[in-house]
Amino acid sequence: MARLRITPVNIQLGRNRVVRRAYGIDEIALVPGGRTVDPAVTDSSWTLAGVTREIPIIASAMDGVVDVGVAVELTKLGALGVLNLEGVQCRYDDPNPVLDRIAAVGKEEFVPLMQELYSQPVREDLIRLRIAEIKEKGGIAAVSATPVAALRFGQAIAEAGADLFFVQATVVSTEHIGPEGQETLDLAALRRDFGVPVVIGNCVTYEVALQLMRAGAAGVMVGIGPGAACTSRGVLGIGIPQATSVADCAAARDDHEKESGRRVPVIAGTGANSTSEALFLTQKAMEAGADACLLVTPYYNKPTQEGLYRHYKQIADRVAIPQILYNVPGRTACDMKPETVERLADIPNIVGIKEASGSIERIQELVQRLGERMDVYSGDDALAAAAMLNGARGVISVTANVAPQLMHEMCVAALAGDRVQAEALDARLAGLHRALFLESNPIPVKWAVAQLGLIPAGIRLPLTPLSEALYPDVRAAMRQAGVL
Which among 309, 312, 354, 377 is annotated as catalytic? Predict the structure, then answer.
């Protein structure tokens, strides 16, 4: 089967200079991931150098983000916080008054103040103390430093018992070159001799990413200056087209897979109300490297049940990747009946259905009809607990965007058959299940996620911002779920 081949476009910048065309995240359109599956089914945990976390979030190694307390709390929540060993935490016995001064200063006074505060040296005794404090309180001691600090304090970091070490600089490579006569950092040697797993930050290119992986890096972080908190782009003029950089580093990951044997699946949403268009999208998704796809029932044109069967069968017959059906009659004006789903279950690469008809009886009938031939997922948060207690494999969730941990815990309980625990957790989520549909989805959920600081406020027409009169209802539901 042919794969989509992307050929780099070179542009002549000047007489003797040719540059490659590259793209930032805001310059491309991304197809949403197709298989949106409940965390309890997919297992949202991940492992970095033997350290397993339930939530795939790393809090940035910045003075204003992570201290000992935050690192410990993030560990308890299932995430990971990285402590900056060259920040105020390891320069001052009590960093809190220093942080208060930073928070209170204006823009004009900021640089002189930071120069004053950072004139205090990094202390080895405080490095050992902060790592010990995190570990004594049950936290994962993930710490960060520059290559120079890695050379100077590496032994102390290892002896103190750090669990992960992040090497960060404006740009990184496998070898850091310092002034003549000064010892330089060899990342391969560091990884080999350090005794602590090494994660490399601020990687940019395919070549460097592959070198870092081959050097034994436990993880590679991609980018320079993509976020609002980073000043590299504005101050130094150094930045990267993040989309191209991620794609290049992912290509390095794919090539390194041949050596490591690991693969991360890519799933694309390719549904459309025209069979030819859905087939085209699914084919192109596969050619571009997708491992599976999610296809909604054709909307607006109201096909018959035989039409639905032929639609999905034709796509499955011609594109040999796993496919998930999606039935949401309230949005498509098309309801795929259980008998039709059962017919489609005989097609080997149709592997699941997201059922969003709002009926627990429909879920029960599908589970009974399909058995082990096809996985059933609830498409309605309010019915998710009941659906899983009745044999569904999970939920493709709206609520989980706002309260992922609580939804995860509820799903784990429901899938284990623990009705009492599942229903108790679902009771805490009930307010969100309701509030996130007070106006058309995704209006309330986008507002709620923006309130959590995860995305900018705003929504595209024809959808409009959440009515201000509903703010208190959504906030109350978020507080009930423990996310505010």
Answer: 354
